[in-house]
Amino acid sequence: MQKTICKELLELYNTHFKLDLLIESFRVIGYGLGTLLSVVFFSMGAISITSLGACLKSFGSLQTTYDLFLNNLNSMQESYLFFNDYLAFMKVKEGPPQNCHTADTFDSVAAEHLSFKYPNQTKNALHDISFSVKQGEKIAIVGENGSGKTTLCKILANLYSPTGKILWNGLPYNRCSVSALFQDYVKYCATVKLNVVLSDIKNIDKDAQISKILSENGLGKLPLDLKLGKELDGTELSEGQWQRLALSRAEFPNSEILIFDEPTAAVDAVAERELFEKLISNSDGKTLFLVTHRIGSARLADRIIVLEHGKIAETGTHEQLMSNRGKYYEMFNAQAKWYA
Ligand SMILES: Nc1ncnc2c1ncn2[C@@H]1O[C@H](COP(=O)(O)OP(=O)(O)OP(=O)(O)O)[C@@H](O)[C@H]1O
Ligand SMILES: [Mg+2]
Question: Ligand 1 pocket, 148 CB below 6 A?
Answer without folding.
Answer: yes
